[in-house]
Amino acid sequence: MVEKSFMVRQVAVFLDNRPGSLAEIARHLANRDINLHALSLAGTRDFETVRLIAADPDACGKALNEAQYHFIETDVLAVEVADKPGGLADVLEIIAQEHLNVEYMYAMVEKKEGFAVIILRVDDPLKACMVLHAKGVKLLAEEDIASL
After folding, report:
1. Which of 17-21, 113-117, 122-126, 139-143 has the lowest mean pLDDT?
2. Same fold, 7-74 and 76-138
3. Cα-flanking dihedrals φ and ψ of residue 49, to 5°?
């Protein structure tokens, strides 16, 4: 299925919420030449969830396993959004019109000429993929992200 090719693997790592835990995982991945293209941190008093998009998700998973980090992989969408006022609203309105719910989103570090790239987790990613594609919104595949 064409839509499945636009799914991007996100790694969510669960850390204790303590000074240095984020630095430790960042250094661990850096020491293994894992390049991160996007990162989101959400925390509570006791733990943090680090969501990240790596240039090489397989190598990232292997490095996290080696260090015994607890993590899961989730399919998300990487969507180009016009880098202008209303660019994000345009994409979100397409999703809302189809009664899809955005569970969370964050931005990638890289920017393409005239576009920002956002990471979206929606309740029905395959439907979102089809709808966005049909409306001319560009979705990035893992290969696109790896080459940024």
Report:
1. 113-117
2. yes
3. -115, 120
Predicted confidence at residue 144, as pLDDT, reads 87
**Which structure tokens are listed for 51?**
């969501």
What's the pTM value of the predicted model, to 2 decimals? 0.86
113, amino acid identity = E
**Three-class HEC string of 70-136:** EEEEEEEEEEEEECCCCHHHHHHHHHHHCCCCEEEEEEEEEEECCEEEEEEEECCHHHHHHHHHHCC
Q: Supply the pLDDT for residue 98.
A: 96
Model confidence at 2: pLDDT above 60:
no
CA dihedral (142, 36, 72, 63) positive or negative: positive
Q: Which residues pair with 53 in a beta bridge?
A: 38
The second-level CATH assignment, the architecture, of 76-138 is 2-Layer Sandwich (3.30)
Distance, in Å, from the CA atom of 43 to the CA atom of 46, rounded to the nearest integer, reads 8
